[in-house]
From TrEMBL:
Signal peptide: 1-21
PROSITE patterns named among the record's database cross-references: PROKAR_LIPOPROTEIN (PS51257)
Stretches assigned to the DUF6438 domain: 35-147
UniProt-recorded name of the protein: DUF6438 domain-containing protein
Species whose genome carries this gene: Sphingobium boeckii
Entry keyword set: Signal
Amino acid sequence: MTKTLSAALALLATSACTPMAQPGDAPVPLESDGISIAVGPCFGFCPVYEMGVDASGRVTFHGERLTAVLGPKAIQRRPDLYAAIVNDLARYKPMLGKTSQSRCDQQISDQQHITITWHANIGQSTALRHDKGCRSSENDRLNRLLDGLPSRLGMEDWTKQTRRTGTSRG
């Protein structure tokens, strides 16, 4: 009995030290091979959301803060949209199963952090963590590509910055 109680207390004590998940940490759940993009906060009033598209063309969205739509939404698009986005993001994809950080020539502070995750049907994920303030010619191209994705995916109206009473910045 004492051993069981001690083990339970030890488990409880260590679980209290486990960090809580933060908005933007978890990728959007997808049905098959897919890409999810978690757009995090900035110092101002930037929308915080997750979006994704899978190989079937299923587009998912989850608005977390400062977006026109809060919560989950999904729509169906053409499967070739997924292939086009995979192609556009291919130059930024790290090695299979790895997580990388974009590299900067110059850094602007207080910008949104974005995590792009490539999900493979085999259960393996590959991710790129990108700070929109991380400036270089390559990252400027990536920023333009990411800025255009909500429109390409048909969710531009969902991601629009929307301030609500009592919502703080950052």
